[in-house]
């Protein structure tokens, strides 16, 4: 009888990330180089219109990218490579900030990110979010993150 490993069991030994940082659920390797999973929301999101904080999404997406890259490896050896990220930002209007980024391991693209934030003057932001949180001077907006395989 041949044992069939789950995608997580097959991939986990190949990457350098462990719990609690590794928190992906239901990892699937759809095809070599492409991974899909459920991203858990572990941090309270306040002051933004988003189901997940951008930093947390970035962490999960980077780990998902490692899993996708590990599925391309020719053997089960664990590899610990340097990740590089590059983000380019723009202010297309006085009320909108945008950014796009790419996460790479070696020469392989692991994840692409794009975001758009509404830019509010401090008095407007304070009035809008006074009921939600104490004044911390943080920005508001919405973000999306997309993995590429």
Poorly predicted regions are 138-149
CA-based gyration radius: 18 Å
Tell me the distance between the termini.
32 Å
**Percent of residues in beta strands?**
25-35%
The number of E-state strands comes to 6
Shape: elongated
Whole-number count of domains? 1
Helix content: 10-25%
Largest sheet: 4 strands, antiparallel
Structural class based on helices, strands and sheet pairing: alpha+beta
Strand order of the largest sheet: 3-4-5-6
Provide the residue-averaged pLDDT.
75
Q: What's the total helix number?
A: 3
H and E string: HEEHEEEHE
Blueprint (SSEs and pairs):
Blueprint: H1 7-11, E1 25-31, E2 34-38, H2 54-70, E3 83-93, E4 96-105, E5 108-118, H3 122-129, E6 142-147
Antiparallel strand pairs: 1-2, 3-4, 4-5, 5-6
Characterize the structure shown.
20% of the residues lie in helices and 34% in strands. It is of the alpha+beta class. It has one domain (7-147). The strands form two sheets. A four-stranded antiparallel beta sheet has the order 3-4-5-6, with helices on one face. A two-stranded antiparallel ribbon has the order 1-2. Strand 4 (96-105) and strand 5 form a beta hairpin. Mean pLDDT is 75; it is low at 138-149.
List keywords for this structure.
149 residues, alpha+beta, four-stranded antiparallel β-sheet, two-stranded antiparallel ribbon, 3 helices, disordered C terminus
